[in-house]
Amino acid sequence: MKARTMRRHLRESLKSLARNGWMTFASASAVTVTLILVGVFFVIMMNLNKVATDLEEQVEIRVHIDVAANEQDQKILGEKIEKISEVKSVVFSPKDKELNNLIESFGEEGEAYKLFEQDNPLNDVFVVKTTKPSDTMMVAKKIEKMEYAAKVKYGQGKIEKLFSFIKNSRNVGIVLIVGLLFTAMFLISNTIKITIVARRREIEIMRLVGATNAFIRWPFFLEGLWLGIIGAILPIILVTFSYYYLYDFLAPKLKGNFIEILAFNPFVYQISGLLLLMGALIGIWGSMMSVRKFLKV
């Protein structure tokens, strides 16, 4: 396409936005409202996903070694666990360390457990992590069958519920976001259809003098792009400032915990770029669907 023709299309698309002020406002508002909702859902879902990932990384299998096992037996058990393909790491934790961890976890009340330092009743432990947290249950069952694995703990019952909740939350979030996007596309498509109907005579004249479908489509294509970009500006501003204050409020309170929210930078720039891209794509798609149908004159 020649540069002069492209300049003409750009000029016509901008003129159309100005001529159809209320239609432009309605279309951009449809995108704005939808992208605000999408932006909020994205912020919530991506932070929930971060929290879920952090929780998944905390999942581990604790293999209590039989007290009858000597050093060689422990070594053999450790090697067998390491050979399981789904296992990421195996760390040996002696019973003295286990007792110290127990004392520290109870704080002042843990002082009473220091009485057991001379005659430690705890077991040596292998702390096992899997490559995929979802493989935890399967790996635990394999280890339970091994010799000298006296007890295998991994939060049985709670872990299954956690993974189920995480999976369902992600699926629900995806469905909601996709539904909102299609709603925005439908609204923009119908708004641009009204614009095309109002200019149908103009399109017919252009067709009669030999204008191609591509030549007629381009201004509408660009018009949809501008509508999507304009509609994305306010959601980007709102999401940026809202997340700034949210992060400033929550980050200090969560500091020191194993749960953290996504850092303001670069997350807010990523979400802004995503909203701008989505706005542009929504506008383009809605315009293309409308023009495709109404150019059949």
Percent helix range: over 70%
* Strand tally: 4
Structural class estimated from helices and strands = alpha+beta
Share of β-strand residues = 5-15%
Order of helices and strands: HHEHEHEHEHHHH
Spatial ordering of strands, largest sheet: 2-3-1-4
Major β-sheet profile? 4 strands, antiparallel
Overall number of domains:
2
Average residue pLDDT: 77
Shape: elongated
Q: What's the alpha carbon Rg, rounded to whole Å?
A: 30 Å
In short:
This protein is of the alpha+beta class and 297 residues long. It has 9 helices and 4 strands; from the N terminus they run H-H-E-H-E-H-E-H-E-H-H-H-H.
How would you characterize this protein structure?
- With 297 residues, the protein is α+β, with helices and mostly antiparallel strands.
- The chain folds into two domains: 188 residues, no CATH class; 94 residues, Alpha-Beta Plaits.
- Helices cover 71% and strands 8% of the residues.
- The chain contains nine helices and four strands, in the order ααβαβαβαβαααα.
- It has a four-stranded antiparallel β-sheet.
- The radius of gyration is 30 Å and the shape is elongated.
- The protein starts with a helix and ends with a helix.
- The relative contact order is 0.16.
What's the helix and strand layout?
Layout (H helix, E strand, L loop, with lengths): L2 H17 L1 H38 L2 E5 L5 H12 L4 E7 L1 H11 L19 E6 L5 H9 L4 E5 L4 H41 L1 H9 L4 H42 L9 H31 L3
Antiparallel strand pairs: 1-3, 1-4, 2-3
Helix pairs in contact: 1-8, 2-6, 2-8, 2-9, 6-9, 8-9
